[in-house]
Design goal:
With about 170 residues, the protein is an alpha+beta fold. About 30% of the residues lie in helices and about 30% in strands. It has five helices and eight strands. A hairpin with a 2-residue loop joins strand 4 and strand 5. The radius of gyration is 17 Å and the shape is globular.
Length: about 170
């Protein structure tokens, strides 16, 4: 409840280990916050709480591989605020700006991820925010949207250099 209040009384609660937008809930009512957090406490759930940031109906997913951005897509929410493709969101390929690319690369570096799906959001005040760094990102929608052969890149950038040092 302290985090809920400190973050302005409008938060997104996410399971620490999850995917495809499942198990995520927005909590903006004090009574509901108490019920949600009490239930999760009893379940001994591992979760994190983020400030809810209003957005224009889309966010940006940048795939960082071995320290460089290799693909990006804009994800549009079907309805509501969740932009996950698995929740019905649609996508379009984009080339991230220099700032977006630099933020994504730095975010992956900070968490030590060789592969990361970095979710960015253009906030209403003009800032670009890092929402999340996924160390095990889903990539099928990204590959389909951008035409980038992500499994091939993972093999050539990460796996083969370890199997055959000096051959890169």
């Amino acid at each position: 409840m302290a985090a809920w209040q400190a973050l302005g009384g409008d938060v997104v609660v996410k399971p620490l280990f999850g995917s495809e937008g499942r198990g995520i809930v927005r909590v903006s009512d004090a009574d509901m916050a108490w019920r949600v957090f009490r239930t999760l406490e009893r379940l001994q759930a591992v979760l994190y709480v983020q400030e809810f940031i209003a957005h224009p109906g889309y966010d940006l997913r940048v795939l960082v591989l071995a320290g460089r951005p290799v693909a990006a897509m804009r994800r549009y929410a079907r309805a509501g605020w969740r932009t996950n493709v698995a929740q019905g969101g649609s996508t379009e390929p984009v080339v991230p700006s220099e700032l977006q690319a630099a933020l994504a690369v730095r975010a992956a570096e900070v968490v030590g991820a060789q592969v990361a799906g970095v979710d960015l959001l253009d906030a209403p005040d003009g800032r670009t925010l890092i929402l999340e760094v996924n160390a095990v990102p889903g990539w099928r929608a990204l590959a389909r949207t951008t035409g980038v052969d992500i499994p091939r890149l993972m093999l050539t950038e990460l796996v083969l250099p370890r199997l055959m040092p000096g051959s890169a």
